[in-house]
Amino acid sequence: MPEEVLFKTEEARTRSAIADRLVDAAEQIENGSVELDSPGDEYRVDVPEDTTFEVELERLTDSETGDQRYELEYEIRWTE
Predict the structure, then answer these.
(1) Domain presence at residue 7
(2) 22 three-state secondary structure
(3) DSSP of 6-63, one letter per residue?
(4) What is the pTM assigned to this prediction?
(5) Which of 7, 42, 49, 67 could form a Cys-Cys staple with 37, CB 3.0–4.6 A?
(6) CB 35 within 8 A of CB 28
(7) Which residues lie across from 54 on neighbouring strands?
(8) Residues 50/29, Cβ–Cβ less than 8 Å
């Protein structure tokens, strides 16, 4: 099944700003509808009662510098 990206945004934020955004997202999920917006882009999706929730923490190491980067991802999946 091909992937279709409906909305994507990435920006630098403080820990506090990220926490605030996650709290807002949690409230929207609990209410059953999530609104995503960024300058020039907007998307709304209904989240069903039963979903799959995945948490993933990755550590990636740059092969040239040895620098380590971490990615913490929260993912919610469902089938219509």
Answers:
(1) no
(2) helix
(3) ---------HHHHHHHHHHHHHHHHHTEEEEEETTEEEEEE--SS-EEEEEEEEEE-T
(4) 0.84
(5) 42
(6) yes
(7) 75
(8) no
